[in-house]
């Protein structure tokens, strides 16, 4: 995959020539190194076409920096892109002595990724964190410069880990430079620098240095025009010209792309070499790890003697020392592509023979495949074993490549089909769903078992839905689930859940008939007489009952499912679908169950490193913490969600941020966010987004006393309360708003619908919410008893945010009756509770009502301080929650050094000296005191 980089010989091309006109680029690279030496960190993507001078820039910068920083430099190679984590292993080889200082999950993840221990496939994000930790440890004593040349050839897993680390660098003393031809999507958004061709004068000077003697002016100008300022082209293209061409004005045709013409020029230069020397160069090109021992042993096997080495080295094409390196990556690709298929097979066969089956079985299998023309089961079986090892290391893309090549070399049509299906599944898991569908099409005509055919249907449905996200996805997944029912019931259940999730995804914007069809199919497949206690089966049936027969019919099964999720040790699939159980806890008005499920899912997702699940689990934790009155903790969870989304590109909308801003009474932040979420939901056909926007706006307006606006928001949800969840909870806000605006009929309608979704549940929380809502529409002793009952229940359930809101409503009612002294008692408690929770909108409303009752409140002025950056605020919030620096780093995917750096700045800006002062200091910030 990669080779250690060694600069070409000093007499090949004067070092200064390719650097003419590069002062700006050199200054930017040297500034990056200088920042690392000063204890700061950064990454830079250097892009430009092949031969434009990226490597020369890197040579110059590393040569200047070698006396001041530690340097780790590699060059990636196209021929081993399929070996998972091969690039990262080469880069980190000298750093692994520090692996035992990493947190245990990170140490295990990177050691499994590198094949140093056996365990479950590591999370790519834990590997990324481990890489960040290793880089930080390496920079502990001396600043570190990491350079990856030709990074476009990195294997997918290594590229992802490097991109992860690059985005988290901050204050570790690390400079990371990634050179590539075009900025790959995985590196998009990182600071970048484009290297372009030289200007005319610099190009002419470089051409003069590259071509000794006179050069016809017309030839010179045509070469400069064709090379477009590309330094490698200016050096290499003239070498393909004869003296007559140089003198007479004839040159190469410009019909080929520049890269192809450079390669063609290189091939022409090597063409006069004796056949043994060309074969030796091909051997070196096919073995990109740069191991001289493999080159010596392989050449001996091919019968290549010292004369072949002497002739090859005389061309200056490559250097053999402690490692084997070519003078430019294009030399390697030119040599390999120009060789005949038979010659390639010969060198791969030799390399397979001399590569250790014990220590490097995957590279050996890959070489054997390269040496094989006709189907060969032994070679295919070795590739299949390599795919299993790649899966274990977390390399789904590598597994797909091994299996696809194994299928090509499989003699048996039956085994070929099996391997094609397995390759397609690996491709889909790696995010290449289009490639998965292509492989499934190849398997269509091959003999498959009934189970394999069913798996093909399932995979085709999943890949198609991943690519299109259209309404046909639910039906295709349903068909797949039915096909698996008798063959693999466990996988069938999981597919049914995917079908139901796809069908219900749209909510009110989706297809109700399709939801019903999927739900009825699930009920038919999961008999009511089924005595299973499996959490996944129970939640599947419970959600189907909810969709078809309503809340009352679903309640017993949903309760069993919730207990099962809490009592059983969930398997991997159940952890993915635990959010269904959490949703059921919300529909069951069970705050304790929701709290336990959210905590458990977050804990499991963190422990397993399943970052695809973690944002959803954290969003539930946000809701739990807000309901519990811990808005600061909810904000910290939002920070963690944002950190994960930044790293992974997870599209989860910022529902938590919206609800948090609404409870805090921050209209300037909440209203634009609600509109953005509403528009996004309409564009994606996600009805849940509309409920989230309407509910949050209703909360915001009720808190600010804008009851007419709250009525408008709540009214939008009235037709959809059968969907439960947020639509159901909006009824509480609508009763309050309509009661304050005097719209009695609307309030009674909302109350009736609220009773329909709370009385059947019968939990203390549900009955408290109903009592509070009903109290607002009753008078006298009846209203008073309802308020007191609700307050008692809310206090018993430990839901302070509703204790405060209910006392506020009760105090307002007492004020209207002229019972000011009693009103002040309720309102004072409400104000204290709501202020402690950080529910500022409702707290201000309580303060206003207190003043109306005749009580004067002291005015607290909030101090405006120097603006905190978003990252500083994130770190400060987690520190306020009592997390250690290492824990904060793990949550926000940053190094401990970066945490320490930001905390020092936070303390200075807030004028504090201890962590214990953070809570008060952060509470004293004005809404404009941070950029969050």
Automatic annotation (TrEMBL):
InterPro entries given in the database record: AAA_16 (IPR041664), P-loop_NTPase (IPR027417), Sig_transdc_resp-reg_C-effctor (IPR016032), TPR-like_helical_dom_sf (IPR011990), Tscrpt_reg_LuxR_C (IPR000792), WH-like_DNA-bd_sf (IPR036388)
Species whose genome carries this gene: Streptomyces nigra
Keywords: ATP-binding, Nucleotide-binding
CDD domains linked: LuxR_C_like
Alphabetical list of Pfam families matching this protein: AAA_16, GerE
Residue span(s) of domain HTH luxR-type: 861-926
This protein's name: AAA family ATPase
Domain of life, source organism: Bacteria
């Amino acid at each position: 995959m990669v080779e250690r980089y060694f600069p070409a010989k000093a007499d090949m091309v004067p070092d200064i020539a390719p650097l003419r006109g590069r002062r700006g680029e050199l200054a930017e690279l040297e500034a990056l190194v200088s920042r690392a030496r000063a204890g700061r960190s950064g990454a830079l993507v250097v892009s430009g076409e092949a031969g434009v001078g990226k490597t020369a820039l890197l040579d110059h910068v590393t040569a200047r920096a070698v006396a001041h920083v530690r340097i780790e430099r590699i060059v990636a190679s196209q021929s081993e892109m399929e070996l998972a984590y091969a690039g990262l292993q080469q880069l980190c080889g000298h750093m692994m002595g520090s692996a035992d200082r990493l947190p245990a999950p990170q140490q295990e993840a990177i050691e499994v990724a590198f094949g140093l221990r056996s365990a479950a496939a590591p999370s790519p994000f834990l590997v990324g964190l481990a890489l960040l930790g290793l880089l930080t440890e390496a920079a502990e004593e001396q600043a570190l410069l990491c350079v990856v040349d030709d990074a476009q050839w990195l294997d997918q897993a290594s590229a992802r880990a490097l991109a992860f680390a690059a985005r988290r660098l901050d204050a570790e003393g690390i400079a990371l430079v990634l050179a590539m031809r075009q900025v790959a999507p995985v590196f998009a958004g990182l600071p970048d620098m484009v290297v372009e061709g030289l200007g005319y004068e610099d190009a002419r000077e470089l051409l003069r240095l590259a071509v000794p003697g006179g050069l016809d002016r017309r030839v010179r100008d045509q070469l400069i025009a064709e090379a477009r300022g590309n330094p490698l082209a200016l050096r290499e293209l003239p070498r393909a010209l004869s003296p007559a061409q140089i003198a007479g004005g004839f040159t190469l045709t410009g019909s080929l792309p520049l890269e192809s013409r450079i390669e063609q020029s290189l091939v022409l230069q090597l063409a006069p070499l004796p056949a043994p020397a060309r074969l030796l160069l091909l051997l070196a090109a096919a073995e990109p790890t740069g191991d001289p021992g493999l080159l010596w042993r392989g050449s001996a096997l091919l019968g290549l003697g010292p004369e072949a080495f002497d002739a090859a080295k005389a061309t200056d094409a490559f250097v053999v020392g402690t490692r084997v390196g070519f003078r430019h990556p294009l030399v390697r690709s030119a040599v390999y592509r120009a060789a005949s298929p038979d010659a390639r097979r010969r060198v791969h066969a030799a390399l397979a023979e001399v590569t250790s089956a014990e220590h490097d079985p995957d590279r050996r299998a890959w070489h054997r495949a390269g040496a094989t023309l006709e189907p060969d089961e032994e070679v295919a079986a070795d590739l299949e074993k390599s795919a299993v090892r790649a899966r274990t290391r977390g390399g789904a893309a590598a597994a797909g490549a091994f299996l696809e090549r194994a299928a090509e070399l499989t003699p048996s049509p039956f085994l070929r089909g099996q391997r094609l299906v397995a390759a397609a599944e690996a491709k889909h898991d790696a995010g290449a769903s289009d490639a998965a569908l292509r492989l499934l099409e190849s398997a269509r005509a091959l003999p498959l078992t009934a189970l394999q055919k069913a798996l093909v249907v399932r995979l085709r449905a999943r890949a198609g839905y991943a690519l299109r996200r259209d309404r046909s996805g639910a039906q295709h997944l349903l068909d797949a689930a039915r096909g698996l029912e008798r063959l693999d019931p466990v996988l069938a259940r999981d597919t049914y859940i995917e079908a139901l999730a796809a069908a219900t995804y749209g909510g009110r914007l989706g297809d109700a008939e399709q939801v019903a069809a999927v739900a009825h199919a699930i009920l038919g497949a999961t008999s009511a007489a089924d005595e299973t206690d499996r959490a996944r089966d129970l939640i599947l049936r419970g959600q189907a009952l909810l969709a078809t027969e309503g809340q009352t019919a679903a309640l017993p099964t949903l309760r069993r499912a919730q207990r099962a999720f809490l009592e059983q040790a969930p398997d991997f699939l159940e952890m993915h679908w635990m959010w269904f159980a959490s949703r059921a806890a919300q529909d069951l008005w069970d705050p304790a169950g929701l709290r336990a499920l959210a905590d458990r899912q977050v804990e499991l997702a963190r422990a397993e490193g399943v970052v695809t699940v973690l944002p959803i689990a954290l969003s539930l934790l946000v809701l739990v913490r807000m309901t519990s009155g811990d808005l600061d903790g909810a904000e910290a969870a939002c920070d963690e969600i944002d950190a994960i989304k930044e790293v992974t590109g997870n599209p989860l909308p910022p529902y938590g941020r919206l609800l948090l801003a609404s409870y805090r009474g921050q209209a300037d932040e909440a209203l634009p966010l609600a509109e953005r979420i509403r528009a996004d939901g309409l564009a994606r056909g996600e009805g849940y987004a509309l409920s989230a926007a309407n509910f949050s706006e209703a909360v915001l307006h009720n808190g600010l006393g804008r009851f007419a606006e709250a009525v408008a928001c709540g009214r939008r949800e009235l037709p959809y309360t059968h969907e439960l969840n947020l639509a159901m909870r909006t009824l509480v806000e609508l009763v309050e708003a309509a009661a304050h605006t005097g719209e009695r009929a609307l309030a009674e309608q909302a109350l009736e619908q609220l009773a329909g979704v709370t009385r059947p549940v019968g939990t203390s929380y549900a009955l408290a919410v109903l009592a509070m809502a009903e109290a607002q529409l009753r008078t006298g002793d009846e209203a008073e008893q309802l308020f007191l009952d609700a307050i008692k229940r809310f206090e018993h359930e430990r839901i302070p945010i509703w204790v405060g809101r209910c006392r506020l409503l009760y105090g307002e009612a007492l004020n209207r009756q002229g019972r000011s002294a009693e009103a002040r008692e309720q309102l004072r408690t409400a104000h204290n509770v709501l202020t402690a929770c950080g529910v500022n909108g409702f707290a201000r409303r309580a303060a206003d009502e207190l003043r109306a009752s005749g009580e004067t409140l002291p005015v607290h002025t909030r101090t405006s301080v120097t603006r905190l950056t978003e990252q500083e605020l994130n770190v400060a919030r987690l520190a306020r929650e009592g997390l250690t620096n290492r824990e904060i780093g793990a949550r926000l995917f940053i190094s401990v050094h970066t945490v320490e750096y930001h905390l020092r700045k936070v303390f200075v800006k807030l004028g504090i000296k201890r962590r214990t002062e953070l809570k008060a200091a952060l509470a004293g910030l004005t809404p404009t005191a941070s950029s969050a």
